[in-house]
Amino acid sequence: MLIQRLLQILVVAIVLVAAFGLLALVLDLVGWLLALAVRVIIVLVVVAAGLRFVELVRDKSRR
Asked: Tens of pLDDT along the chain (63 residues)?
C-alpha cells in the first residue's frame, strides 16, 4: 500500500512538472506574440496616419 501511494505521488509530481513546463512555454509564446502584435499595431497606425495625410493633401489640392 505504501509503494502505491509513493507511486501516485511520483506520478502527480511528474504531471505537475510537465504542466508547469508547458505553462512556461505557452507564456513565453504569448509574450512573443504580444510583442509582435504591438509592433504590427504601431505599423498600422503609422500607415493609417500617412494615408490620412495624403487624403488631406489631395482634398486640399482639389479645391
From this structure: 788 999 999 999 999 999 999 999 999 999 999 999 999 999 999 999 999 999 999 988 887
